[in-house]
Each structure stands twice: as C-alpha cells, then as structure tokens.
Amino acid sequence: MKIGFLLLALALLVSLVAAANMDKYNLRKGKEFLEKKALEEGVVALPSGLQYKVVTEGPAGGKSPSAADTVSVHYRGTLIDGTEFDSSYKRGQPAQFGVGQVIRGWTEALQLMSVGDKWELYIPSDLAYGPSGPGSIGPNQVLIFEVELLDIVGGSSAQPAVAGGKKARKSKKKQAKEEL
Prior knowledge:
By secondary structure, this protein is α+β, with helices and mostly antiparallel strands. Helices cover about 35% and strands about 25% of the residues. The radius of gyration is 19 Å and the shape is globular.
C-alpha cells in the first residue's frame, strides 16, 4: 500500500516537473519565433506584442468591427511547429462570434481589419491562452492564425475604414498605439 502511494506521488511529481519544463520551453521558443517574425518584410509588430501580416487587402472603404460587433470569419489556427489545431475551412463554413468574446489577440486584430481583409496573426501567449492552453494548445504557446474577415453580421458600431489602402492601415495602427 505504501509503495503504491509512493509510486503515485512520484508519478505526480514527474508530471508536474514536465509541465513546468514545457511551460518554460514554450515561452522561450515563442519569444524566439516572434523575434524572428518581427524582422520579416511585411510583418507589423504592435505595442501589445501582437504581430500581423496583411495577406490580402479588402476593398477600399470596407468597414471595421468594434469589440461590440459580431463577425463572420474563416480562419485556420496553427502552432509554431505547423500543427493545425482548428480550422473553419475544414468544417466547411465560416465561424461567427463576438469580437470581444475571443482571445485578446483576435479582439485587437479584428478591430484593425476591414471586411474583405485576410491577415496572418502571430499571437503571443499572453494575448492567447497563457499558461492554461486548452486541448492541443500547450501552456504559453504562441498561436498563428490565418483570418479572413468576411462580414460584420451583428452590432451597430462598425466603423467605415479610412479610404486609401495603406494610409488607412497606418491610421488604424496609429490609433491602436494611442489607445494602448
């Protein structure tokens, strides 16, 4: 009986040490990934730590959602090693959710996007799930999302995007920095 209890306690201790090591490993690897990514052409790094790259720019004058809006998006989520953990594309239909009801990295990015935009997001763990990653997402993992903003389907506070393509992006980035 005592041996069984000791073996169980030892197994628990080993699993706790392994989890702590994974936590530190993911933090280190995530930091390295984000540092490299920030140097790539076309990648924008925001003060919050969120990084993004515009893959496709929607039509000029497209609306941008606020945190109170509901949006329709297609997305694919991967870990930095390329492991896909979620995809609306695979389900065959876009997802709908409140902009303010998702991880902080998504909330920040969606408010900078315009309908029709497709961005690649690089989200640090503190803007994602932090030390308590759900399912196949481990503790403190950086997440990569390909996000296509299809429509604003609910809410009434959508803002018209500033006309001018790249000027509009710069204006939105400046506004985001001022709000932080």
